[in-house]
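Field log, afternoon session.

UNIT: design team B
ACTIVITY: writing a sequence onto a fixed backbone
BACKBONE:
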């Protein structure tokens, strides 16, 4: 399954340092890793949350196995397209 993850510049830099092979450990103020199901929602988060105070927001696209992601529930957290795991 293809998923999306909005990130800010500092998190993007850490992901880049890993060769784009892993996401960094979550920060204390952001303890939950929540991939989103569509690019539209990810862009919205990146532009409204990650790109504040002059920072840059990025949207990363990645794949996880269908078998693995089947263990998680899809949550709709606002508008009909605001879906995340």
């Amino acid at each position: 399954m293809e998923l999306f993850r909005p990130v800010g510049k500092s998190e993007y830099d850490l992901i880049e340092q890993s060769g784009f092979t892993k996401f960094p450990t979550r920060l204390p103020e952001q303890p939950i890793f929540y991939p989103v199901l569509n690019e539209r929602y990810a862009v919205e988060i990146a532009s409204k949350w990650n790109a504040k105070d002059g920072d840059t927001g990025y949207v990363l696209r990645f794949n996880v196995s269908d078998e693995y992601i089947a263990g998680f529930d899809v949550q709709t957290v606002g508008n009909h397209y605001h879906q995340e795991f």
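LOG NOTE: The radius of gyration is 13 Å.
NEXT ACTIVITY: expression trials, pending approval
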